[in-house]
Amino acid sequence: MSKTIEGLYYSQSHEWVKVEGNTAFVGITDYAQSALGSVVYVDMPQEDDHVDAEMEFGAVESVKAASDLVSPVSGTVVEVNSGLEDSPSLLNEKPYETWIIKVEMSDPSQLDNLMDAKAYSEYCESL
Amino acid sequence: MEQPISRTCLYYSHVTLGAKMEPFAGFSMPIQYQGIIEEHQAVRTAAGMFDVSHMGEILVSGPDAEKYVNYLFTNDVTDMPEGKVLYGMMLHPDGGVVDDLLVYRLFGGKGFLLVVNAANIAKDAAWACSLAEKYDVTVENMSEDWGEVALQGPEAERIMLEVLGLDMKELVFYTFTEARWKGYRLTVSRTGYTGEDGFELYGSPEAVCHIWKALLDAGVQPCGLGCRDTLRFEAGLPLYGHELSDTISPVEAGLGMFVKADKGDFCGRDAVARQKAEGVSRKVIGIELSDKAIPRAGYPVFAGGEQIGHVTTGYRSISTGKSICMALVSAGYAALGTSLEVEIHRKRISGTVCKKRFYRTSYKKIASGFKR
Q1: Residue B153 — left, alpha, or beta (φ > 0 → left; ψ -120 to 50 → alpha)?
Q2: How many domains does chain A have?
């Protein structure tokens, strides 16, 4: 069974969000990394790019396939995790410690549309 | 139409090993066990084994077998000695490819074995039967009665000897032998789909299960279809449905050497002879990208702002780390060194036309009396 962390928000497309003030850290869940297999490339936006909730903002790619990254919230990208350029496998090794983008949220109420750890676990089991 | 999903004789072994199973060509097949990268490296540096029991086997026998196979198949089987294997295609009259396949000339005058792609078994069997009407031959689809394991990698010859007791030292690339192992009859060819030395072993499902278990017990890495594709791709080998298809001819795919247009009549000959003489308008090429972004099948290829083709297979090469692909493009852009762009996630990534063989293959082509 895949791991979840209490206190994070989760999307149906298997991203997680950690909130600090008005900043959202976005990564992919343990379920997502396990389903993907070894991540070999992460296609990321650039700083100052705008992302929209439920819109694609990049892709994680395994050897075999590319899988879209969908932003759980809207806002401005204030930082991308440049460490993933050389070590994309961090997403496999430490999915909940490896954020992909940091977003300054324009509408924090969008967090209400996301799941908590318990609801996300149940969602994964239903798949 | 949705077809029921088949299982190979090794299905339960794959599940027990924890393989990630996915539908492929109507079979539930292992995509990976440990991981595509680990399995790929095992084949490049030591050895790995693949369940390829989904492949199709069609037997051709009878007085006209040679004449018939020569009409069905693009390569020339006229002077083909028993024990030899040839690669080639079956063509539609317009030069499109029905399938690519291996042809084995069986010992004892028993005819030919055609080994075809799993996805095309029904189509191929029907095609082979439709062309057989004018010949005194028997065409039998044996696919469900045969299993197949591929043992591939630089250690393959040693493992064949030490684990199975089969001495294959003298077996030359693209030849085969009939062997006995624990009372089972096996057909063993020095062939494969990885760019490495290695063997393909055919036998009854029961024999194949025992061989698989013996190799597994000896610590040979089981490998899934995931790395089968990354390995064949690096070696520049085509995959039907990508680099060859009903609408992509072998000449367009750069495989004209397997089409003997001057051997006498065969299905599709006029079309490919014309393509060879007059040139083709599209070609399958290799492209090396300047960026880490990964090209995937179907992504468009551009030159000077205009789309000139599409990616047929692409990966971040596990062996070299480079982002590379094969692509079908307008022939005017196929010259080595030509600058092209591949669109990846809405960005145009620049690249250069290169050879399709991205990785140096290491086949065991011992100098011998065999002629192609």
Answers
A1: left
A2: 1
